[in-house]
Amino acid sequence: QVQLVESGGGSVQSTGSLRLSCAASGYTDSDYYMGWFRQAPGKEREGVAGIDDDRMTTYADSVKGRFTISRDNAKHTAYLQMNSLSPDDTAIYYCATGRRAPGRLWWLLHSADFENWGQGTQVTVST
């Protein structure tokens, strides 16, 4: 059974940085993609960034140039480096993973294409 544990959330002032980590357990190989999603109060969950085992990456337009996703296949861990944070980035951030399957377009960051989810970590950005 796959389990995902996020860490690194917290409170930061505007223009600050945070680095989130997502440790995956239960995998015996690295042939899966990983993603970060976020949900702000009163809003729908949205995809932020994704990465596959070949380290191909994808980003939401709202975070391009500010956020960087990476992964360590040996550690089954993904990271999200978040720079130039603004109050609009305040949300609960979730890590998710999935395996390739027909019809799964993971790079579009649709929640339905990710089958395993973490509990989330809060990120709060103040002015």
Structure characteristics:
127 residues, mainly beta, four-stranded antiparallel β-sheet, 0% helix
What does it look like?
The chain has 127 residues and is mostly beta strands. It is built from no helices and eleven strands. It has strands spanning 3-7, 10-13, 18-25, 33-39, 46-51, 57-59, 67-72, 77-82, 91-98, 116-117, 121-126. Strands 2, 4, 5, 6, 9, 10 and 11 form a seven-stranded mixed β-sheet that branches. The protein has a four-stranded antiparallel β-sheet with strand order 1-3-8-7, with no helix packed on it. The termini are far apart.
Question: What is the alpha-carbon Rg in Å?
Answer: 14 Å
Q: How is the main sheet built?
A: 7 strands, mixed
Number of helices: 0
Order of helices and strands: EEEEEEEEEEE
User: In one word, what is the shape?
Assistant: globular
